[in-house]
Design a protein that fits this description.
By secondary structure, the chain is of the alpha+beta class. 32% of the residues lie in helices and 40% in strands. The protein is built from 5 helices and 8 strands. The strands form 3 sheets. The protein has a 4-stranded mixed β-sheet. Strands 1-2 form a two-stranded antiparallel sheet. A hairpin with a 2-residue loop joins strand 6 and strand 7. Helix 1 packs across helix 2 and helix 3 packs across helix 4. It is globular and about 55 Å long.
């Protein structure tokens, strides 16, 4: 955890997280995986998501999450468990650096689709990393199963460690862009 001061305001910046399994540290998540963990499992806002070279247009965009809603659904069929998570993010464009103005209506929808795909891929990759590398249910999927489908939990609870590795996580990410936070036009180099 680092303290960062910007524009006279001091904030906490998370730069990683320890992964525990039964009171034993089994590894660490880097800064991006930690952010993805928080996006999956926490109510999180006032978070910046930097996007490099959006749509290969030599434009970097930083988005600020200003609101979010989530809903989990556990689906069990033929010995397979799937966790569907619907996440709706409300975001502001915090910063644009490059040639493309994503605040223009014609480009905003492209940016929205790009962000939705980017976050979906990042969240799935983080879950897969934790399942394969750390084998620790830091997301609370077991508790979701226990609450939403007690009959399934009763069948799998004794062997949950092996079941966790096989859970399929499917995020359905929706992004709503509510204008820009600090600037309205991209900054162009040399101008």
């Amino acid at each position: 955890v680092n303290l960062v001061t910007q524009n006279g305001k001091t904030d906490i910046e998370v730069s990683g997280a320890a992964v525990f399994k039964k009171d034993k540290m089994v590894g660490e998540l880097d800064k991006d995986s930690t952010k993805n963990f928080l996006l999956i499992s926490q109510n999180i806002k006032d978070t910046l998501i930097p996007l490099k070279n959006v749509l290969n247009l030599n434009t970097d965009v930083t988005m600020e999450v200003v609101g979010e809603k989530r809903k989990f659904k556990v689906i069990s069929s033929s010995n397979k468990i799937k966790i569907n998570e619907k996440i709706s993010f409300t975001m502001h464009i915090d910063e644009i650096s490059g040639q493309t103005d994503f605040t223009e209506e014609k480009n905003e929808n492209k940016l929205k689709n790009y962000i939705q795909n980017y976050i979906t891929d990042e969240l799935k990759a983080t879950v897969k990393q934790v399942q394969e590398k750390y084998d620790s249910d830091i997301f609370g999927f077991g508790e979701l199963i226990r609450v939403q489908n007690p009959q399934v939990w009763k069948k799998i609870s004794s062997k949950y460690d092996s079941v966790f590795k096989t859970i399929q996580y499917e995020p359905n990410v929706e992004v709503y862009i509510k204008g820009s936070g600090t600037i309205s036009k991209p900054m162009k180099a040399g101008k």
